């Protein structure tokens, strides 16, 4: 009678199984030992989660696929911004053109990802996309133009900084009137388009890192944790110290309390 595999040996074998069908037809599936059955359940959960991520990714590619079905060689650019709501710091936009064979499974709206996952995806995207860029509108421009127009300015700057010119644009909830190429305004685009989600992640990591640098330059506002949003610690810092050079003077409560 052949010697039974150890549970560790079976776990190692299951790590190479890539589908639930293959899992259920595995020769050790009938092994009744509790540890073996637990290993099968664990691997099943992993495969189910992976299948859900793949399904979600395919759903997030539907806008891109609609364009590519008509124009297979289209260069599709996703655009998103970060930082419209904070009381301090610039608004940052990113423009991203994915490679044709992209497979960034697990990508999502940057706000739905933890910091570690965002950082991992940020680096992976930068290393594996056709082109990416950042555009920034300053606090002074926000106060002069208003946040909506400053956001557009940051997006135009991101587009102008790309190394290649896109043929199509997918934009998160904005319309850019100065673009000649076809564009599509997508509500909640960072959760519905893989290109916009990629831009969302790159923009957020860039701005979060920038605000962490500002925290060292302007201590007392907790910028390293709130990225300029009006949290209790940020408001406490404002009450104690007043405004600093990166506060948006046109935003409430700064406008009414500190001018």
From TrEMBL:
Cited CDD domains: RNase_HII_bacteria_HII_like
Binding site for a divalent metal cation: 80-81, 172
Subcellular location: Cytoplasm
Gene Ontology MF annotations: manganese ion binding; RNA binding; RNA-DNA hybrid ribonuclease activity
UniProt catalytic activity: Endonucleolytic cleavage to 5'-phosphomonoester
Pfam families with a match to the protein in the record: RNase_HII
GO BP term (any one): mismatch repair
Ranges of residues in domain RNase H type-2: 74-259
Coiled coil spans: none
Cofactor: Mn(2+); Mg(2+)
EC number(s) on file: 3.1.26.4
This protein's UniProt keywords: Cytoplasm, Endonuclease, Hydrolase, Manganese, Metal-binding, Nuclease
Family label: Belongs to the RNase HII family.
PANTHER family: RIBONUCLEASE H2 SUBUNIT A, RIBONUCLEASE HII
Protein name (Swiss-Prot/TrEMBL): Ribonuclease HII
């Amino acid at each position: 009678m052949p010697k039974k595999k150890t549970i560790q040996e079976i776990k190692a074998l299951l790590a190479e199984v890539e589908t639930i069908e293959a899992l259920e037809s595995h020769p050790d599936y009938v092994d009744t030992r509790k540890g073996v059955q637990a290993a099968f359940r664990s691997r099943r959960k992993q495969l189910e989660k992976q299948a859900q991520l793949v399904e979600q990714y395919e759903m997030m590619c539907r806008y891109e696929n609609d364009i590519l079905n008509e124009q297979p060689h289209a260069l599709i650019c996703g655009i998103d911004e970060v930082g419209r709501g904070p009381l301090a710091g610039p608004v940052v936009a990113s423009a991203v053109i994915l490679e044709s064979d992209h497979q960034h499974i697990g990508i999502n709206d940057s706000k739905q990802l933890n910091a570690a996952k965002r950082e991992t995806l940020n680096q992976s995207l930068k290393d594996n996309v056709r082109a990416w860029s950042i555009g920034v509108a300053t606090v002074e421009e926000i106060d002069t133009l208003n946040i909506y127009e400053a956001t557009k300015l940051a997006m135009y700057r991101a587009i102008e900084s790309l190394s290649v010119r896109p043929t199509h644009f997918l934009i998160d909830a904005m319309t850019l009137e100065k673009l000649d190429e076809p564009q599509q305004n997508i509500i909640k685009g960072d959760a519905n388009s893989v290109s916009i989600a990629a831009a969302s992640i790159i923009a957020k990591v860039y701005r979060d890192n920038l605000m962490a640098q500002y925290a060292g330059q302007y201590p007392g506002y907790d910028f390293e944790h709130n990225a300029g949003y009006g949290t209790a610690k940020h408001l406490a810092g404002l009450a104690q110290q007043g405004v600093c050079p990166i506060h948006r003077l046109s935003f409430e409560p700064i406008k009414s309390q500190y001018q």
